[in-house]
Fold this sequence. Notes:
The protein is about 20% helix and about 40% strand. It is an alpha+beta fold.
Amino acid sequence: MKVRIIDTMVVILCMATAVLGAPTDANDANNVPIADANKVLSKLDTGFIKDGKLDLDAVIEYVEDMYRSKSSISQMTLIVTKPRQTREVAMKVWTRGKEKALIVIESPAREKGTATLKVKKNMWNYLPRIKRTIRIPPSMMLASWMGSDFTNDDLVREASYREDYTYKLIGWSKDPNGWLVSFNAKPDVVGLWKRWELVVSANGRIPLVARYYDRKNRLSRTMRWSEVREFDGRQLPAKMEMVPEDKKGQKTDLVYEEIDFDVDVPESTFSLSRLERKR
């Protein structure tokens, strides 16, 4: 019982540090009064803390699926910032589960109608200016999506945290405060980052930052989540910022404006004819 109480105190202290900003040494858990710990707990959403420990499998499943549902319709804005220009793209996204997604650009006018379709393991881009549909092979999943710092895989979430990677909890991170999780691609999986790291909030409910490494184990890009707000009853980060390490002064922001979950999305939405439809 004493060991379990100590484990619980350590977790509480880490959560208090993250939320309240108090300087805390987890090794001093034995010296923390139970009343003080309960006071902290009453102010915190313990989320995926089970029996004093982080339920890592539950956290990974939750983070991977937090923008998903049986179906969804969302409005998003993509903002690509470069040293000499800023480009803003408005788009609408339809999804059904994990295997189907349609992304259609609504503005600016010169890109209107450009679209991306994902059905299971297949992905296509439609370019209305040349009236051409291009199939994206698995080897191109890490290629830039529409000239942004996000990849094809980022937009359609083809890769699975649980199926394509092995992962483990490294410990407590101080930059930023949260739990640090390491991911390594499984052998023979094509078109994925070889290694990346994720920091989630103290209760495991909110991703904070992800760092992606190239084949030479060099930091390639960093993604940060921010601006948590409610979408159709869910507390989710509205903004994702992607910053490449090799392009000074460049970044891409992906902002959710609206999300409606479990709405009527016909099966016909996810077809090549719908992808190529004039808009």
